[in-house]
Every structure is written in structure tokens, then in C-alpha cells.
Amino acid sequence: MEITNKMCNFAFTMLELNKVRLKAYPFSFTLMAPGGQLTVLNVESHVAHSLFSAILGFEQPVEGFISIDGEPLTRSTVRALRRQMAWVPSSLEAVGGIAPLQPPTVQDIFALRANRGLSISNGMLAEEVRKTGGQGIKATLLATGVLLRRPILLVEEPQAASAQYLLQQAEQGTAVIVGTQDPAFTTMTGNKINLCSYLLNKSSE
């Protein structure tokens, strides 16, 4: 069987999954997520985690391919392509052998080219946390991911209060992909929203 999205529609591609099948699931995924759009994957949390693990190159698909701007994700390209992505896990607990995301230091933030012209203080991370609209460790993880200034932002189970913040990140050109079944995201509408509702097709493997 193959899972394809029925509602994603856009003019260009940044991140593509083409008939990607993972070891844990008897079906494949096809997805295209462009920069400048908020792509909402309406899937269970464990499915989103597995997909993000594959996108990051931590899990090898059984079939299909993953690419960024047409460049396939392979053993030789994974490190370079991973530098284009920021991953925001649902918690700090390591799952499936993936190390938890570590917040950047103030020195890391200063080193980012996008921030060199800004007046940055030690309170930059706290200010970004406030902007997320969320609370607790999830808000800190999200703010950290955004401050990395990567063209692709992968977010697991974001807080409902951060929906507009994530849309703003997409409007600034980031390819934002969230895995959630929260109605705050799955009911969003607009030309910057890719609401991906997945269906099981009867096509055989």
C-alpha cells in the first residue's frame, strides 16, 4: 500500500519524499513540502517521528528516496543535507537512538550569519521563547530550532499556542513541517498552508 497526500498543492519543491517506505510500516509515504509553506502532517506522533528520523538520515528507508532541492539523501550527502534542517523533538528524551536536541550557546547564536547585524543579548533565547506563544520545554525547543536559521524546520507535536508563530516562520521562507493531529493545526487554512490528509491506497507493494 502507498500513503499519498490528497491536498498538498504548490509550485516548487524543497523537501520531497517519493514512495518512502520505512521498516516499521507496511506502506509508503509521498510528500512534497516547499519553502514558504507550513506543511501539516496529520499523522500519529510515532509516525511523524519515524518520518522525521528518515528525513534527517537517522533511519534508512526500505524503499523510495528523500531529496532536498533535487539532491537525494544518501550516505555521501546526509551530513551536508542535515545542516539544512533543524529538528524540534516532542521532548528531550532520546528516542530510537537519536540524541536530544541541545540548545545553542550564546556564541553559537552570534556566529549565525543571519544574526551578525542584530543587537543580540544573552536574553535572545528567552525572547524567542516568548514569541512562540508556548510554555515550558516545548517552547524552548521550538525557539532553539528557529534560532538555528535552517531552511527546513521539522517540528514534532508543537503546542497549539505556537500555530501562528510557526506560520510566521513559513511566511519568512522556511519550509516548516509539523507532525500533529492537533485541531489548532489540522483546521488551519490559507495559501501558506499545506494540510496533508493521508489516505491508504489499495495499490500493492
Features:
205 residues, alpha/beta, disordered N terminus, 5-stranded parallel beta sheet, 7 helices, disordered C terminus
Question: How would you summarize what this structure contains?
Answer:
This protein is an alpha/beta fold. Helices cover 27% and strands 24% of the residues.
Give structural notes.
Helix content is 27%, strand content 24%. By secondary structure, the protein is an alpha/beta fold. Helix 6 (163-171) links the parallel strand 8 and strand 9. The longest helix is centred in the last third of the chain and has 12 residues, at 136-147. It is globular, with a radius of gyration of 17 Å. Mean pLDDT is 81; it is low at 2-12, 94-98 and 199-205.
What is the average of the pLDDT values? 81
Helix content: 25-40%
Q: How many helices? A: 7
Outline = globular
What topology does this entry show?
Layout: E1 2-5, E2 15-21, E3 28-33, E4 38-41, H1 45-55, E5 63-68, E6 71-72, H2 78-82, E7 85-88, H3 106-111, H4 124-132, H5 136-147, E8 152-156, H6 163-171, E9 175-179, H7 183-186, E10 193-196, E11 198-200
Parallel strand pairs: 1-3, 4-9, 4-10, 7-8, 8-9
Antiparallel strand pairs: 1-11, 2-3, 2-5, 5-6
Helix pairs in contact: 4-5
